[in-house]
């Protein structure tokens, strides 16, 4: 099989965008609203069809009505207009199909072939279904002749639950599609602030000379959620925070912070540099896991002033050892970062919803103002990924006034919402357009996924062998006390977003 005929980065003349799981939560809440918003801006190929595949016994009219209701619910009212909505709905088709059965595939095949110059149409297959179905769907697509050079397949996380299963999933998809046709999506990489991290690093000359172990004391990456597991309890209890968040989202953010400058941003260059970071992570021994990782589980508490239940109550039983919180210390063993710890943490039912990266620089080597009031604090670059995208550079300044020097921490703030006139697109909006254009930069390559699993797996193995259960923490807090101790023993503290 050959690669796609459309040049990467170019908009094809026609596209059939097929969503397996077309009536599921992800499709209705994220994917279809993202496609509507790009269509509203005139960015979809004019000749685009959107095909929802599900087991629902919908005819075309019923599916369009279900999608209309989802768009009205999940798209901001000021971005809804009748002309764009009607154009989007006219693109929709539905095929009733059980991916494990034989019925319906002929109908999908006929629909995809039923267009002028179908051989020049880019076909995107988005697998918004359980990973166990990826292989069988791909084989069926191959059997009906839909997995040709113009096809692209998008797979959601999790790609496996350990290294062996990830390799099995990759093998199954790779039997049908070339690596260049496989787009493993991590929506965090589509966020404006994450991409702006690359621009901040590589388009500003004053930062790059400081971006190394000579000047950086440590790096903190936090992805905190105020919600509990909700209706994902069945899935989450078999995954846990390490698999669900650290193995993909947090390690991808670490890669973007730590990677070497690529030759240019595009194609395979960024993914090559991210892989080098994952390969440079210090392997975790059992002693390292015991010392440098903390796992926790939320108890009942208060979030936003409202009482919330414990994980056991949300799950319906107290027999689980699954973690809802992880904090850990990682090290990148290369020339640039030797000796610089990277502290990662993520959890559910914490005191706020936030995702942030904090680069803490070293303190000045000499106290120049010994008789001043106040004190200097380490400079910090604080990158806010969500909810309020932007960045702050924390400095020490002299407070105005006579009678001596009073030192005061101040910050230079950049809020994307106020600095730029246009609203930032949702991560899925950008990533789906990249799939249509064939641009792989913001997607995970097979070797990246498997390198991340190879690093995480010793932690999972050690935790499974340990008699210790996850440490409890009240909902509405910043996590277990041991997470603070993880930094305090190194003489450091977590940098909270309002500190």
Automatic annotation (TrEMBL):
<dbReference type="GO" id="GO:0006006">
    <property type="term" value="P:glucose metabolic process"/>
</dbReference>
<dbReference type="Pfam" id="PF00479">
    <property type="entry name" value="G6PD_N"/>
</dbReference>
<feature type="binding site">
    <location>
        <position position="55"/>
    </location>
    <ligand>
        <name>NADP(+)</name>
    </ligand>
</feature>
<dbReference type="GO" id="GO:0009051">
    <property type="term" value="P:pentose-phosphate shunt, oxidative branch"/>
</dbReference>
<comment type="pathway">
    <text>Carbohydrate degradation; pentose phosphate pathway; D-ribulose 5-phosphate from D-glucose 6-phosphate (oxidative stage): step 1/3.</text>
</comment>
<dbReference type="Pfam" id="PF02781">
    <property type="entry name" value="G6PD_C"/>
</dbReference>
<dbReference type="InterPro" id="IPR036291">
    <property type="entry name" value="NAD(P)-bd_dom_sf"/>
</dbReference>
<feature type="binding site">
    <location>
        <position position="348"/>
    </location>
    <ligand>
        <name>substrate</name>
    </ligand>
</feature>
<feature type="active site" description="Proton acceptor">
    <location>
        <position position="249"/>
    </location>
</feature>
<feature type="binding site">
    <location>
        <position position="244"/>
    </location>
    <ligand>
        <name>substrate</name>
    </ligand>
</feature>
<comment type="similarity">
    <text>Belongs to the glucose-6-phosphate dehydrogenase family.</text>
</comment>
<dbReference type="InterPro" id="IPR001282">
    <property type="entry name" value="G6P_DH"/>
</dbReference>
<dbReference type="GO" id="GO:0004345">
    <property type="term" value="F:glucose-6-phosphate dehydrogenase activity"/>
</dbReference>
<feature type="binding site">
    <location>
        <position position="187"/>
    </location>
    <ligand>
        <name>substrate</name>
    </ligand>
</feature>
<protein>
    <recommendedName>
        <fullName>Glucose-6-phosphate 1-dehydrogenase</fullName>
        <ecNumber>1.1.1.49</ecNumber>
    </recommendedName>
</protein>
<feature type="binding site">
    <location>
        <position position="191"/>
    </location>
    <ligand>
        <name>substrate</name>
    </ligand>
</feature>
<dbReference type="InterPro" id="IPR022675">
    <property type="entry name" value="G6P_DH_C"/>
</dbReference>
<feature type="binding site">
    <location>
        <position position="225"/>
    </location>
    <ligand>
        <name>substrate</name>
    </ligand>
</feature>
<dbReference type="InterPro" id="IPR022674">
    <property type="entry name" value="G6P_DH_NAD-bd"/>
</dbReference>
<dbReference type="GO" id="GO:0005829">
    <property type="term" value="C:cytosol"/>
</dbReference>
<feature type="binding site">
    <location>
        <begin position="98"/>
        <end position="99"/>
    </location>
    <ligand>
        <name>NADP(+)</name>
    </ligand>
</feature>
<feature type="domain" description="Glucose-6-phosphate dehydrogenase C-terminal">
    <location>
        <begin position="198"/>
        <end position="495"/>
    </location>
</feature>
<keyword id="KW-0313">Glucose metabolism</keyword>
<keyword id="KW-0560">Oxidoreductase</keyword>
<comment type="function">
    <text>Catalyzes the oxidation of glucose 6-phosphate to 6-phosphogluconolactone.</text>
</comment>
<feature type="domain" description="Glucose-6-phosphate dehydrogenase NAD-binding">
    <location>
        <begin position="19"/>
        <end position="196"/>
    </location>
</feature>
<dbReference type="InterPro" id="IPR019796">
    <property type="entry name" value="G6P_DH_AS"/>
</dbReference>
<dbReference type="GO" id="GO:0050661">
    <property type="term" value="F:NADP binding"/>
</dbReference>
<keyword id="KW-0521">NADP</keyword>
<keyword id="KW-0119">Carbohydrate metabolism</keyword>
<feature type="binding site">
    <location>
        <position position="157"/>
    </location>
    <ligand>
        <name>NADP(+)</name>
    </ligand>
</feature>
